[in-house]
Design a protein that fits this description.
By secondary structure, the protein is α/β, with parallel strands linked by helices. The chain is built from 11 helices and 21 strands. Strands 1, 14, 15, 16, 17, 18, 19, 20 and 21 form a 9-stranded mixed β-sheet that branches. Strands 3, 4, 5, 6, 7, 8, 9 and 12 form an 8-stranded parallel β-sheet that branches. Strands 2-13 form a two-stranded parallel sheet.
Length: 391
């Protein structure tokens, strides 16, 4: 999905990936992250957000909840985490990162609420009155009042399978009234997901119908209960290409994630904006009939893997690009599959991919590298897919 663009905009990353694998510094099934490019991307994202007075939380699940990458991003001033689930909050909170938002896609389990409150999150997103009650009880024990954000949903909104939940717009006022009676929580905002998506037909980022629901919910809370709505959070596809849309549509918060590695769908089409900063490295395991098989473990079912550069160097690989076959989600990704066609892959060759991923759901390793652009490659360390340093 991103291989062509990475070869054009950050060829040194691919060259570094080849070198590290050929030297044995990294194994197959490793994501290589260009830390300098990530810092650059964070800087221009923050500059764009400041231009529109938009507040940002960084999402790190796509790069494996990595605390070192989070710290690098925080240098830009985007210094608070949005945790996709409480485990991510604990990982990064224990690493010293500030926690901005917890609970949006995954609610906090009952017996983990105290642990999360100890991290002093800026806000917690809740889907139900019952969860607000649980948070309130724990907050009262600590003598605090926790700010919460309500996830708003309507029957005809665009919701991904496995992510259904929230306050129905027709029930919002009644539910908010009940929450307002609680001593340990305070409603300060609203959110929904996804609010923006890339449109393949128009080749641009557009708002979803969820935005209408979200704005309607904010209005109900303001006018019906006089609640001071400090956060109107518009996550999904947040990058330099779409931060202006948050402002244009009445929001003031966003949650960039893939933008830091230049891997949102629009980055596969545009030569401007964030620089591609991540590739996936594998190796030819074997060939059988007209297929070449690479070591797997890091393929993601929504990754849109298109091709891989294969060889012993960038110069060899740029002329030896093999088309990739789609791996069925029904099977374990023990191997990636490449069509040999008229190419000549050999066992042991390096294979470099660039596709959309979510490292935290893989079994990959993650290599953090600096100095790529200066030709002074510095491998900072190897981490697992959940942000723990291996070596």
């Amino acid at each position: 999905m991103f291989l062509d663009m990475t070869a054009k905009r950050n060829p040194n990353l691919i060259k570094a990936a080849f070198q590290l694998h050929r030297e044995g510094a990294i194994y197959p099934n490793t994501y290589v992250l260009d830390m300098d490019a990530i810092r650059h991307n964070a800087k221009i994202i923050k500059e764009e957000a400041d231009k529109y007075n938009i507040n940002l939380y960084m999402m790190t699940k796509q790069i494996g909840r990595n605390p070192e990458v989070a710290r690098a991003i925080s240098e830009s001033g985007i210094d608070k985490i949005v945790a996709v689930d409480p485990w991510e909050a604990l990982t990064l909170g224990k690493a010293g990162m500030k926690i901005g938002n917890v609970g949006h896609l995954v609610q906090i389990p009952s017996h983990m609420i105290r642990q999360i409150l100890d991290l002093k999150p800026e806000v917690i997103t809740v889907f139900t009155v019952e969860k607000a009650v649980e948070i309130s009880k724990e907050a009262e024990k600590l003598g605090i009042k926790q700010d919460i954000v309500l996830k708003i949903i309507n029957n005809d909104d665009l919701i991904y399978e496995g992510q259904v939940g929230g306050f129905k717009i027709d029930d919002l006022l009644e539910c908010a009234e009940r929450i307002n009676e609680l001593e340990g929580v305070r409603i300060v905002g609203v959110t929904a997901f996804p609010c923006f998506l890339y449109n393949e037909q128009t080749k641009d980022i557009e708002k979803t119908r969820n935005v209408t629901t979200l704005l309607k919910g904010a209005k109900i809370l303001k006018e019906g209960l006089g609640i001071d709505i400090k956060q109107i959070n518009f996550p999904s596809a947040n990058s330099t290409f779409s931060i202006g849309l948050i402002k244009e549509n009445g929001g003031n918060y966003g949650e960039p994630g893939h933008a830091f590695t230049g891997t949102t769908p629009i980055h596969a089409k545009r030569m401007e904006g964030e620089i591609p900063a991540m590739v996936y490295v594998s190796e030819i395991s074997h060939c059988y009939n007209d297929k070449a098989y690479t070591y797997g473990g890091g393929f993601y079912r929504r990754g849109h893997v298109k091709k891989a550069m294969v060889g012993k160097s960038f110069n060899e690989g740029i002329n030896n690009i093999l088309d990739a076959e789609t791996i069925s989600a029904e099977n374990i990704d023990y191997h990636g599959v490449l069509d040999i066609d008229d190419k000549k892959p050999q066992v042991g060759d390096t294979a470099v991919y660039a596709f959309r991923t979510q490292i935290f759901v893989t079994r990959s390793e993650v290599a953090l590298v600096e100095g790529i652009q200066e030709g002074n490659i510095n491998l900072l360390g190897i981490y697992d897919s959940l942000g723990r340093k291996i070596r």
